[in-house]
């Protein structure tokens, strides 16, 4: 089936007992068994829950994996919960290669949590696969990429870095949160694992926190299933249900996010009060050609630097009315933030430090003319 159809139907057949066309919320911790070990596929909700299972089938389908595999998806309690599952695959002495502008929470986990457990890390500019190759160590077990990156919106050539990872025998993980499977399918380009914060575009309504890992590798998938059951960072049934609801409109929302963001990026690029704009859909983006080859659209995220430095950036962020000043992204409403002071505080003083005057926009699905007027007012002071 095509993407839009999978988003509505994969794992979401009418309930066999009632005919309900929406997957029920199975708010149960345990399941009756006919005799010890004889059950209907579910025994305890940390191990498996029907609502969560429906979400996992749908997520896998959207990343190109049918219900019968190979591989599949696991749904976690948050994006960082999914990141932690990757961390559980590492041991002291292992090395992780990060992008030099990784999301602050990702950096915090690897640099401050896993470092205490003896795992090593380093960062490199992943826009050049040759630099990735030179940054590898004999102990490199994971190459971690975001594309587009958060918040600089740089792109990683997934196919090229996948080749480097295969040569090194390292697991190649791609955080696909910004692009979503509607705009980009990393597994099709050679990635081993796709990670999502389902909190963002997949949920789409700023009302749920969740995460996911998807892989075609049956051994990795079995390992992930073991680890999520053993460690327990599962998505609850109501959270899974909310993400399932969000998936149904993902395609139409991403079309609108992309259309609105393109208009706003061009507006910002031409505005005299703006110094720099980063958006893959602009021809001025240094990797615009890669964006047109690798993605089916440029998404809803924009970063820019206004004239006037951090003071001006703060004033603009406080002045918008439709763009709410808030962390997170990917909801139907538009958001504005200063990453250096909000989502990326943890990278202060490191090579991953974010410019203090950088503004990040998560462009929603409101009428674009209203959003443009809101930004025009804020930029005009």
Key terms:
381 residues; alpha/beta; Aspartate Aminotransferase, domain 2; Aspartate Aminotransferase, domain 1; 15% strand
Structure, explained:
The protein is built from 13 helices and twelve strands. The strands form two sheets. The protein has a seven-stranded mixed β-sheet, with helices on both faces. The longest helix has 21 residues, at 250-270. With 381 residues, it is of the alpha/beta class.
Give the helix/strand layout:
Layout (H helix, E strand, L loop, with lengths): L2 H7 L40 H13 L9 E5 L2 H10 L6 E5 L4 H10 L6 E5 L4 H7 L4 E7 L11 H11 L2 E5 L4 H4 L9 E4 L14 E5 L2 H14 L5 H11 L2 H21 L3 E5 L9 H7 L6 E6 L2 H11 L4 E2 L9 E3 L21 E4 L5 H13 L1
Parallel strand pairs: 2-3, 2-4, 4-5, 5-6, 10-11
Antiparallel strand pairs: 1-7, 6-7, 8-9, 9-12, 11-12
Helix pairs in contact: 1-2, 2-9, 3-4, 12-13
Question: What are the low-pLDDT stretches, counting only 5+ consecutive residues below 50?
Answer: none
The CATH topology of the largest domain turns out to be: Aspartate Aminotransferase, domain 2
In CATH, the architecture of the largest domain is: 3-Layer(aba) Sandwich
Distance between the termini: 50 Å
Report the major sheet: 7 strands, mixed
